[in-house]
Write a structure and sequence with these properties.
heterodimer; A: 172 residues; mainly beta; eleven-stranded antiparallel beta sheet; 3 helices; B: 227 residues; alpha+beta; four-stranded antiparallel beta sheet; 4 strands
Amino acid sequence: MMLGAAHAQCADPFQVAAQTGTSAFVQTRHLTGVRTPLVSRGQAVVAPGRVEWRVTNPIDIRTVITPTGITQSVENGPPQSLGPQGADPFASGAGLFDLLVGDFAAVRTHYDIARLAPAANGSWRLRLTPRGAGLARFVSQIEVNGCSAIEGVEVRQANGDRMEIALTREDG
Amino acid sequence: MRRLGGIICVIWCVLACVVIVARVREGRAFDTDIQSLLPQSAIEPVIRAAMTDAGDAAARRVAVLVSADDPQRALDAAADLEAALVAANVFHADRSDGEEMGRWLFANRNQLLCDIDPARFDGAATAQRSLVMLYSPMTPVSGEMLRRDPFLLTLQLSQCLAPSGMGGSAILLSGRLENSSFRLDVQDAVGAVYDVWRARWPDVHVARAGAVFHAREGARKRGARCR
């Protein structure tokens, strides 16, 4: 997983709450039986109560997540509401949104959080384990790291697939 | 001769009363399906059976759209209605058939279409949707799924054919009744659960569809006219 530069002093991960701003991301999906990882790049814009996850490469997909719902538009098309059948349990209501807005209290409703030993560069590391059997059917565990903000997320799925997200702040 | 006729009439009345009492005691209410009055010999038995099955399946369908100013309230109200209907043993929610429906969609993915008109099928758009699913953060794609269904047709069909939330603050609760909507006891049970639920959630907006609601409303209006 990609980590930021060496950190002399990192904030308490539970104090990075409610950070807003724009981050560049690189998402890498390792799928079982698929030799080449699927890599996508884009920007994540976090505002109060709203996350815009925009994949710009290899295809333009703008996903807007709010507490009331999820919409998606492709190649600047009209936004369409995503039904629950199409939503990944981590990316929808059970993880990504709460993590990106730094709401660990909400994350705790779905996951047990354990603090791991800091990384070599001093960044903090957290391990999230699903609390409920329903979510555990999809997600084995999630590892999150960062310093003043979340910089990396690794999702290990129950079926052996793995997804890494590296985030780099573009503002502030 | 008149005496014999009178005896036969009395026997017929007694038998009718016995049948009625037995059906009521067994909880089997009366069939209110108007098609049951049609002559049995008017149509081929196989065709009649097919029509009956199709009609029964359609008549058992129930859909309730719940909306509110607060989306969470709509979600809670819809969940409460589903729980109450299931607890009364009258309702089976579509969303509890998720795995079964997924298997059916996968098995029939090459025959099913999202478009109503087959002529409007767009192969390029289907391929692009699969690409979007691959790179979208919201799609639960797995390596196994990709190997068995490279264009992710099952997922695409699940998004366009399966019932879902309506987006915004509206929640669609859909499913089927456990028994025929033409039975009076089913109409009464569903109606009672619905009325109690409505009293618990007076502030939510509701739109409902289903033969059971039409039948109950018809019976209620007829009863009001008789009084």
